[in-house]
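Worked example 3 (structure in, sequence out).
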């Protein structure tokens, strides 16, 4: 007995909504990055569930590319957070009005 695809889609939608809520309400840059990662993981769940449902591996390959994209996004995001903390002594994304040279 396998789990129906609607459960995976429901789990993915719930995770995506949680991540979207975190992106829209949090002002801490680290929490913002974590919320984006939750949203990317929700997309990965959908990709893998539909790949399993259709019986091919293309969704799993796309999920691997998405994980590589998430790793690059975290590296760039942490660099931006370090610059933000170094210049403003806070990781609140509303503090700087513009990033200057």
């Amino acid at each position: 007995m396998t789990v129906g695809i609607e459960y995976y889609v429901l789990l993915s939608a719930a995770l995506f909504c949680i991540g979207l809520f975190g992106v829209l309400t949090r002002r801490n840059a680290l929490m913002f990055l974590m919320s984006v990662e939750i949203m990317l993981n929700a997309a990965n769940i959908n990709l893998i569930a539909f790949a399993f449902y259709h019986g091919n591996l293309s969704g799993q390959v796309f999920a691997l590319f998405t994980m590589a994209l998430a790793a690059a996004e975290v590296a760039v995001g942490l660099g931006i957070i370090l610059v933000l903390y170094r210049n403003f002594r806070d990781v609140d994304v509303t503090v700087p009005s513009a990033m200057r040279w």
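Notes: The domain at 5-88 is CATH 1.10.287.3510 (Helix Hairpins). The chain has one domain: 5-88.
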